[in-house]
Amino acid sequence: MKASASYRLFQAANYVLLTVVSLLTLLPFLYVVIISFTDANEYVTKSVVIFPEKWSLDSYRYILSTGTFIRSMGISAVLAVVGTLLSLVVTSSLSYVLSRKRLKGKQFFLVAILLTMLFQPGMIPNYMLVDSLGLTNTIWALILPVLTGAWYVFLMKNFYQDVPAELEEAANIDGCSDIGVFFRVMLPLSLPALAAFGLFFAVAYWNTYFSAVLYINDDSLRPMQVLLQLLLIQASTQVADPSVAAMIQSEQTVPPDVIKMAAVVISSLPIVVIYPFLQKYFVKGMMVGSVKG
């Protein structure tokens, strides 16, 4: 059918509007990237920099040459890798057990998990629990309390419940135990869900901030997001902080704002790079290649 003139006009207006909104959303990110590559002298002399005449990598060289930032990036990387792996193991195994009809006391466990989503204990009880377990000032204080969540468990549980029972029965006939069924059948089928949840967990661990402020007093264990906040405070108010003073002391060569922009770009880059490789799993069906006909 040939589209009418009014429909084509409506489609064109939609495309124009969505393009404008996309550009407006993208502009702040582009501005951060541009400022991070701007030469120090040009940034100081100009009130607004739209497109720098002289590009420079001084801010990135300076940040990557400071032990404080490299150490904080390493802490965030350990949180993202170790925390994501442990969260996927706990979430997938717990969800699989809860999805089995023969589990005794299944309703009790489901209600208990649901209550954790409806009623939060609060900051002080959480801190008392972490402190009583001796986890304060350790990296485990940023991982163990947030290993999984009720929302992830229920989604993964429904995921496993939708898998045809014939697959599990066939595996049992071939001699697989319950653990064998989980590792040989369920996990391969759940790769799309694991990839999607893994991205959620990785972003959450990489952006760890409040729990680090609450549980970590050791400067050597600060994740990158905490250091970025200290950089913002240091550059804006000139409040002295020994752990980040070295990163601001060279402001005569690299302005603090340029350092901040470069730090933001570096901290965002890993997630931006990883996301395209996992994006396909968001639209991929979980049963592809398992059951035909």
Automatic annotation (TrEMBL):
<feature type="transmembrane region" description="Helical">
    <location>
        <begin position="12"/>
        <end position="37"/>
    </location>
</feature>
<keyword id="KW-1003">Cell membrane</keyword>
<feature type="transmembrane region" description="Helical">
    <location>
        <begin position="74"/>
        <end position="96"/>
    </location>
</feature>
<dbReference type="InterPro" id="IPR000515">
    <property type="entry name" value="MetI-like"/>
</dbReference>
<feature type="transmembrane region" description="Helical">
    <location>
        <begin position="258"/>
        <end position="278"/>
    </location>
</feature>
<feature type="transmembrane region" description="Helical">
    <location>
        <begin position="181"/>
        <end position="206"/>
    </location>
</feature>
<dbReference type="InterPro" id="IPR035906">
    <property type="entry name" value="MetI-like_sf"/>
</dbReference>
<feature type="transmembrane region" description="Helical">
    <location>
        <begin position="108"/>
        <end position="127"/>
    </location>
</feature>
<keyword id="KW-1133">Transmembrane helix</keyword>
<keyword id="KW-0472">Membrane</keyword>
<dbReference type="Pfam" id="PF00528">
    <property type="entry name" value="BPD_transp_1"/>
</dbReference>
<feature type="domain" description="ABC transmembrane type-1">
    <location>
        <begin position="73"/>
        <end position="277"/>
    </location>
</feature>
<keyword id="KW-0812">Transmembrane</keyword>
<feature type="transmembrane region" description="Helical">
    <location>
        <begin position="139"/>
        <end position="160"/>
    </location>
</feature>
<comment type="similarity">
    <text>Belongs to the binding-protein-dependent transport system permease family.</text>
</comment>
<protein>
    <submittedName>
        <fullName>ABC transporter permease</fullName>
    </submittedName>
</protein>
<dbReference type="GO" id="GO:0005886">
    <property type="term" value="C:plasma membrane"/>
</dbReference>
<dbReference type="GO" id="GO:0055085">
    <property type="term" value="P:transmembrane transport"/>
</dbReference>
<keyword id="KW-0813">Transport</keyword>
